[in-house]
Each structure stands twice: as C-alpha cells, then as structure tokens.
Design a protein that fits this description.
Elements (H helix, E strand, L loop, with lengths): L10 E5 L4 E3 L2 E3 L2 E4 L2 E3 L2 E3 L5 E4 L4 E3 L2 E8 L2 E3 L2 E9 L4 E3 L2 E8 L4 E3 L2 E3 L17
Parallel strand pairs: 1-4, 2-5, 3-6, 4-7, 5-8, 6-9, 7-9, 8-10, 9-11, 10-12, 11-13, 12-14, 13-15
C-alpha cells in the first residue's frame, strides 16, 4: 500500500531561543519554538505544523495539526494529524492524537488518548489469529 505524502506547512514564524512570550499565541501554517511560551499555542486552520525545539518550554495548551516535540510542554497537547515525540520530549498533561510516533527517551506524564477512536475499527492483534 502506498501512502501519499503531503507537503508540510512552511514555517513562517519563530519564537527564538532566549525569547520569553507571556500570553496566548495563534499561528497559521508553521511555527517553530526554541524559546519559552507561557500561554496557549494554537494553530488557526488545518494543515498546520508546530515544532517545539530541544531547548523550548511551553506552559499551556498546545493544539495543531502536525506537532513535533523535542522540548518540554506542561499542559494538554492535541495533534489533529500527527504527533511526533522526539527523544528529548517531556510532556506533562493529557495528550490527544490521531497518529503517534514516539521515540525512545521521550516521556509523557499524563494520559494518551487517540482522537476519533469511534471511527477506527477495533484493534485486532496478529497473535490472536488462529494458526
């Protein structure tokens, strides 16, 4: 089976290392955070990309289509399309996702909940199939 890869949203905004932002942040397309955000980070529109760099810290709710985390997030995270938790990711809070990729070393202190679970067929384990 072939999968169509969609071109990722361009990163048009940056919260640079050493920057501290207090208050909510709404973005379109792509955003990279390497500094600190004390407030909610929310994408406006579908097809968005949020990259949380290794030294980044977010204290607040995170919501975007494709979320890549390699820093620290304290608050709920929702990825409507794909959530990538890279090796240095540290998340404290509930995590909601459609697809999840979690690398060795990433930590989540909270509940993992798939989105739209009612639309998915029940999980069938290969080991439970009769031989």
């Amino acid at each position: 089976m072939w999968f169509r890869s969609r071109k990722p949203a361009p990163i048009r905004s940056l919260v640079g290392e050493g920057t501290v932002l207090r208050g909510g942040l709404t973005f379109v397309d792509g955003l990279r955070i390497d500094g600190e955000v004390h407030g909610d980070v929310t994408a406006a529109g579908a097809g968005s990309l949020l990259v949380v760099g290794e030294k980044a810290r977010i204290c607040g709710k995170v919501k975007a289509g494709h979320v890549i985390i390699n820093g620290a997030v304290s608050g709920p995270v929702q990825a409507d399309e794909l959530l990538e938790l890279q090796p240095k990711a540290r998340v404290v809070g509930e995590v909601s996702y459609t697809l999840l990729e979690m690398h060795q070393g990433a930590t989540v202190d909270g509940e993992l909940r798939p989105l739209k679970s009612e639309d998915r067929p029940p999980l069938k384990l290969a080991a439970s199939n009769p031989a």
